[in-house]
Amino acid sequence: MAYSSGMAGVLVGLALLAFWLFSLFDVATTPEEEVRHSPKAVWLIIVVALPLIGGLFWMMRGRPRVARETWSVAPRAEGEPAPKGPDDDPDFLRELERRMRGGEEK
Predict the structure, then answer these.
(1) pTM for this structure?
(2) Which of 75, 81, 87, 98 sits in a 20 to 30 Å window from 64, CA-based?
(3) Is residue 32 part of a domain?
(4) What are the tens digits of pLDDT across the range 17-71?
(5) What's the CA angle centered on 95, arms 93 and 98, to 5 degrees?
(6) What is the pLDDT of residues 82-93, one digit of tens each?
(7) Which residues contact 26 (CB under 8 A, 6 or more apart)?
(8) 47 lies in which domain range?
(9) 23 close to 59: Cβ distance less than 8 angstroms
């Protein structure tokens, strides 16, 4: 019985450590201009000094609301068709079929 409660304590401790490290990394990697309500340095101090509470405050009050764009995609001109994949290109499919037949004959 004591073993299971000790194991639960270790798991809770590891979960809190993981949350704290995530919060700390998130504050450190968020660009200064996207941080809300306080300067980034203040948020770092809060998260370091108050691991659980600071991380929760960061998630609710300091973290950017809008998800950061990770992929930059060039905008298409009005009326320009969407790019096709190779399996939508009839020329590509003909060439692929020709190569596959040529490979079988050898």
Answers:
(1) 0.55
(2) 75
(3) yes
(4) 999 999 999 999 999 988 888 899 999 999 999 989 999 999 998 888 766 556 5
(5) 110
(6) 667 777 778 888
(7) 58, 63
(8) 7-67
(9) yes
